[in-house]
Here is the input.
Amino acid sequence: MELKQIVPNWDLLPIENEEVPNIEDFKGKPLLILFFNLGCPGCKGRALPYANRIIVENGNKVNVLGIHTRFEGPEYTKSDFDMAKLEYHIRFPFYIDQNMAETFHKYLAGGTPHWILIDKEGKLEYSIFGSDPNNALLRLDFKINELVGEKLV
Here is the structure.
């Protein structure tokens, strides 16, 4: 996917019996997508807390959505997801990537955690792999602040 290109819809499965939203449902404000896996230490230790922080700090200015993807490793059950939601205080909706990693591959993700930042019109603004606070997460902070119109001091 190229920058400023409209992001295609995802192929996700619900964890509960809820309806999976379409990407169009998030137009109107930026959307941060986190590809993660419960077997990924960087996802659990840095990415999930970062995604939660984005929600707390930005309120309703940014949407956050998680996609649990699995290109290797064990399958996880609904019980595993329920426990993770409590243990990591996940404050955003998340879904399972269809066929293990269909959306992951469609969005050209590089591993987990991988971040996709979409502008309010549904266009790709940024794509980055990793959870290093001094690299990937710092860059995401700058991009998110640009999109919500806030200046860093």
